[in-house]
Amino acid sequence: MAGVLIYVDGNRIIYKAWCEFYPNKPYIFDLDISPGDEITINVTAITTTCGVVTVCNLTTSQEDDHKLDSTSPLCQSDAVWLIYRANNPLVNFGTLAYTNATAYGTPGTYPWDLPPRAQRCHHC
């Protein structure tokens, strides 16, 4: 898993990119992220127990990657884009857009694209 974490620390809103290969603990990337930044996240499975996550802030031209290893193998059959709330209630983020959300399978398979109607989440 990989994504952007948004939380409040005192009176500051913190934005951080993270990744996790369960059952290991999450890794927090050392990237500056601000509201309105355009972020790309690329998750690549090298094997069923090894992968690399690359996060790029296209707005600031910062990029970082992290290698993940686990003893628990990936199924390599699912790709999910989601908005997840750790706390209740979920903050109203306005309109969020997933763009160019694509999953590629093994060589010789076709890419799977997130349909345009599913790329927007209004008042998440």
From TrEMBL:
Name this protein carries in UniProt: Peptidase G1
A molecular function (GO) term: glutamic-type endopeptidase activity
Transmembrane segments: none
InterPro entries: ConA-like_dom_sf, Peptidase_G1, Peptidase_G1_sf
Record-level GO BP terms: proteolysis
